[in-house]
Amino acid sequence: MSEVLEDLGFVTSECSSANELEAILAADLPDLVLLGIAADRVEPGQFLEVLVRTGFEGKVLAVGAPDSIIVKAVQQVGEEYGLGMLPPLTTPFAAGTLRERVAMLLPEEPAPSPAVHVGEALHGGWLELWYQSKIDARSLVRRGAEAKVRMRHPTWGVVPPAYFIPEGHDPYFSALSEFVIERALQDWHYLLERQRAVDLSVNLPAPYLRKPQAVRDLCRRMPMHPAFGGLTIEIASDEAIRDLEFLAEIAREMSFHNIALSIDNLGANWPELMGLDRIPFTKLKADRQFVAGCGNDRLKRTVCRHIVELAQGYGARAIAEGIESGADLAAVSELGFDLVQGYLFGKPMPLKKFAKSALTPTVIKQE
Predict the structure, then answer these.
(1) What is the pLDDT of residues 293-313, one digit of tens each?
(2) Number of structural domains in the chain
(3) For the whole model, what pTM was predicted?
(4) Which residue of 54, 140, 211, 238 sits 20 to 30 Å from the alpha carbon of 106, by its own alpha carbon?
């Protein structure tokens, strides 16, 4: 349930006793309290007493079995106490049903851009990595995952990177890159312990790799575990093309330490990679703006075809990011892309949720 609420933008906390609830009410001032009610517990009454005594002004949602006498009693007593009781939620329930119950607490418009500097987020420990699977375009088997930075702000909830990723000249860009590398390697060990090794990719700016000792330090950090299949560094296409000579120099050193380079969001600039003897990239990823809708757009399809041909010519693999429909999947498979990723297979998700999902077969979301 916490995962569903977090996907909706809530910042969640859990408590197992009335005392813990009272501490959370004092520290976090929540907007919503969910009471999970089981037949063998008398705790709901104590929770209600805490809510009344502390003057809780938010909403309360009782969750329990259908026709539960305890759920009905909690609902009635809560209303008599003057608490903001929402209609009870019966188990089992779908994520959409939970969303309907808490709809009044969700903003009608997207939250304004929070003025949070990445330095503050790093210092506050608000940053984490979410993961989106990369799927074999033919077998539809998972073939790794891309790490994407998210900020879990104590007030605004989960904030996408567009609101806090610094400009390239910002001194904290280096610290952010260090965080991404360190956390990705920690998460790799977490995934290995709980299911199996997953080949990960991270996004780094090319200027970071120019820092003294950056490449050498990166190589030293790589796990020595025999299950480690390597780390892929994705670099934005404009930076990659601009720093092509430098990246070619470091690619060989990194390859000896199981690190590969991939070019990200390649689109209309694909011709700039033509006619070279070789490129330092093992993968070329097509920009989502040319992938989404390519099944029905001739221009997008043409760009995607050229990227596949370019990758094949250099012995690299082609990745299509932004797959949102079955038509897009069919189109990129026909064009010859090796890997795909996109909302059709699931959005980026927190580490623990990704670990659970990776244990199940690939599921294509209903359009």
Answers:
(1) 998 999 999 999 999 999 999
(2) 2
(3) 0.75
(4) 54
